[in-house]
Design brief:
The protein is mostly helical. It has 9 helices and no strands.
Length: 212
């Protein structure tokens, strides 16, 4: 059980360590501000202990996401102020407290679908606004679609149907990437051939044996 003394020790230890790294940074390499990296990690130490001690997990997700956003924004401003790359990581960071505050609704298929659509729209807009030359939004879209897809079929225990839908998704993904990345080379047939073994093996070793 975490007590107040442990939280206090973590807070004092974190502060002392941050001050130490800051001092070393400015004494040895003042032209490069690097102390913020260990400081970012150290700040999570007392924050995590205090949140676990009180059971404030939702508040922890909110404060933790704000800390991550401030850290990324700071690094972005220091390293490459002309290009706001921190926005690429903004959606999953913000969705962390949203998921926590949704409580039991976060386990529902409706929430998974809303999250999926939101992620696809967010990265599609970013893609169109910041780098319209290449449709890279297909990669995060392919990743997030698995959440509602798997949730739907696993809850119904329709594993063969899941293998068919998931294989179709992967085939569509490989074909799309092939077309937009290297249309002159038809390489998608190789991973597609491997993917087809998934529903085929489930049909042969599970569905067909049950019928027999």
């Amino acid at each position: 059980m975490i007590d107040r003394q442990q939280v206090g020790f973590a807070a004092v230890g974190s502060l002392m360590s941050i001050l130490f790294f800051m001092l070393v940074n400015f004494l040895t390499s003042p032209s490069e501000i690097w102390f913020i990296y260990p400081a970012f990690v150290l700040l999570f130490w007392p924050l995590s202990l205090a949140s676990v001690r009180k059971g404030y997990y939702r508040l922890y997700s909110l404060l933790g996401s704000l800390l991550v956003i401030v850290f990324l924004l700071t690094i972005n401003y220091m390293e490459s102020p002309d290009y706001p790359w921190f926005v690429y990581a903004l959606f999953p960071v913000i969705w962390w407290p949203i998921t926590m505050y949704s409580r039991s609704k976060a386990k529902t298929l409706t929430f998974a679908i809303i999250s999926n659509i939101s992620a696809i729209l967010y990265y599609s807009i970013l893609n169109a606004a910041m780098s319209p030359d290449y449709p890279w939004a297909i990669y995060p879209a392919f990743a997030v679609i698995w959440w509602p897809l798997a949730l739907y079929y696993v809850r119904k225990k329709q594993y063969y149907s899941f293998s068919i839908s998931a294989s179709s998704l992967m085939i569509a993904f490989f074909i799309t990437v092939n077309v937009v990345s290297s249309p002159d080379t038809i390489w998608a047939i190789y991973p597609i051939f491997a993917v087809l073994w998934w529903p085929l093996s489930i049909y042969y070793f599970q569905v067909k044996r049950i019928k027999n």
